[in-house]
Amino acid sequence: MALRTDPDRIGFDPARLARIDEHFGRYVDDGRLAGWQIVVTRRGEIAHSATYGMRDREAGLPVEPDTIWRVYSMTKPITSVAAMMLWEEGRFELTDPIGRWLPEFADVRVYDKGPVTKPYTVPAVEPIRIWHLLTHMSGLTYGFAQVSVVDGLYRAAGFDLGVPVGADLAAASQGLARLPLLFQPGTGWNYGVSTDVLGRLIEVVSGQRLDEFLAARIFRPLGMTDTGWWVEEADAKRLAALYFPHPATGQAIRADALGRLALAAPDFLSGGGGLVSTAADYHRFTQFLLRGGELDGVRLLGPRTVRFMTRNHLPDGRDLASYSPTGFAETVLDGIGFGLGFAVVQDPVPSRVPSSAGEYYWGGMASTAFWVDPAEEVTAMLFTQLMPSSTHPLRPQLRQLVYSALVD
């Protein structure tokens, strides 16, 4: 990462920034988190960078600047950038039906009524289009959400926290296409496997495996040397342990069965949640976004494309609360729109959390998060490994502390 600067010089009050460490330190001190890493920047300069606690509490290994984190759904913005790079090359239009490249989705059906044991479906009146995948308006869902009958059908077919054993991205896409959609494409918003299907589309359009495409076109050009789909044996000790809250005490306890999956190459390359990364690497990705698609002389997207991606693409300019059924998401819904791969703040007042209109962001299942605020030229990142991300209000609290420290 860039060298740390004097916070006063870029509009931050150092004493107020110190509140971040004091506040989040209490989560570690009382056992709710094992450890964390936080980075706040303005105008490309680091105003605050801190680590606290343990990356592996049981082994006594502290969080260090090069700790590797499972970023889970923070993979989605990267996959979305990859898709838009192909769009800039004229390889597709956002209005194209995905069935043009993924024929399994040519004749999808939509859930209408009935139980998991006997669902009744109807034909889709509108095909799933590429912009539907980028905005989560496809009707695809997550099995682990456990809210709808369609979620139950996903779990019955082996799509819960992952995909059926041994399925690669192509097989997963074919399996998902056989399941009904939650709603007619373009008529609602639902967090789900849309970005995984987008990853498969990238493979077909580019002629490369998703891991090869991201490595060649994004990670190597941006210098993201520690970002990938699994952790090699030589770096295994740098990987933070994964935790979940004890149901009775709230104390963070290890989730090794899920955590160890990051130590081996996966069959399924999840464009929606498969990456591991470091603060230094993801910092480079946020700076690439803040600078309008360019970093250190390497341009991957045009600035107008980045601005287009980070506008609200929900029909009629409405917010997520207007389009989303009750379900899981890595964001609040009121006052928040959705762009092409990012949540976008329309109005911070309904969520009661300070931010700027036009700020865009996302988070991951293990409580990681980032945001980019073009108006204030601020970026922030939070890394920890506690799942689910809804356990503690870490993200809104970080916003409170960062924006209250901005004093110019």
TrEMBL record:
Q: Which UniProt keywords apply?
A: Hydrolase
Q: Which domain of life is it from?
A: Bacteria
| Matching InterPro entries | Beta-lactam-related, Beta-lactam/transpept-like, Diverse_Enzym_Activities
Flavoprotein recorded as keyword: no
- MF (Gene Ontology): hydrolase activity
Entry's Gene3D superfamilies? Answer: DD-peptidase/beta-lactamase superfamily (3.40.710.10)
**Hydrolase listed as a keyword:** yes
Annotated Beta-lactamase-related domain residues: 20-401
What EC number(s) are associated with this protein in UniProt? 3.-.-.-
Q: What is this protein called?
A: Serine hydrolase domain-containing protein
Species per Swiss-Prot/TrEMBL record: Micromonospora harpali
